[in-house]
Amino acid sequence: MTDSLSSTVVSFTEGAVRGTGTVQRVEEQDAGTVVIVDRTPFHPVDHTWPDQPGDSGVIDLEDSSVGVTEAVMAAVSDEGVLAIGTDIPVKRGVEGWTWLVAHPIEGEAPTWLVPGAEVGLHVDESRRAGLSRGHTACHLASLALDLALADLWRKDPGADALGTPDFEGRANQSSRIHEDGSVDEYRLGKSLRRAGFDTETFAATLDERVAAINAKLADWVDSGAESRVVPAGPTIVDRRTWQCALPEGTAEILCGGTHAASLSEFASITVALDLSDPQLLVMTTTVVPA
Fold this sequence. Notes:
CATH topology of the largest domain: Threonyl-tRNA Synthetase, Chain A, domain 2
Largest sheet: 8 strands, antiparallel
CATH class of the largest domain: Alpha Beta
Oligomer: single chain
CATH superfamily of the largest domain: Threonyl-trna Synthetase, Chain A, domain 2
Number of strands: 17
Structural class: alpha+beta
Helix content: 10-25%
Radius of gyration: 21 Å
């Protein structure tokens, strides 16, 4: 049994930072107390691909409040086993589990924070905005990177969201979003060379590749294109797609995170490429908000 829990309904897909919800469970864990509500504006960090941190903020009732440190994924099995964050033993969406957003709180649960209570949920708006810009910039940087490296492929590696040879999809091994930026790592090993990528020419022309990426990002920022998250359904487990109407066409990327509503929110997006280790490319993306 799932203890009458249903998958958490989320509103961060619409850009919401405030909402109300009914407390369903308050769980004491070794790492602290977590609160589960039926609906929330909080975006949780994903337990399998933790690129974007979870939202922080507060839960309140009338004049009382408690801080939320960082929202995380949670899941309860059909047998009633509740798992939080990295303790979840399966990938998101696997059948036999109900998928939830857990809100870890600061300290012990106050007396008013009990199942059945109708509470307010308020996300740290400034942090959310910075993370959303960082995530949008991360996707744009990867698309611009693919464009700048398109001529270096001798074989077809598959296409990205703009139809460009997909260096991002082939080589990315980690992505970390932070407020107004991101850091991505790409493995440039034998498997990538066997896939047809010319690593030697890339290394020899690194500066001009950086210039091409930053020029393309400047063009996209100037376009002020619409950016949005399109969910397939209302719950945390439903698939979500980031869409951005770029001059080259609308890019669509499966993505569970939050995003800026428009590229007019950016004054600039720039990248730096570090190839000090010839086997590892590090791309650092930096945002200046408008």
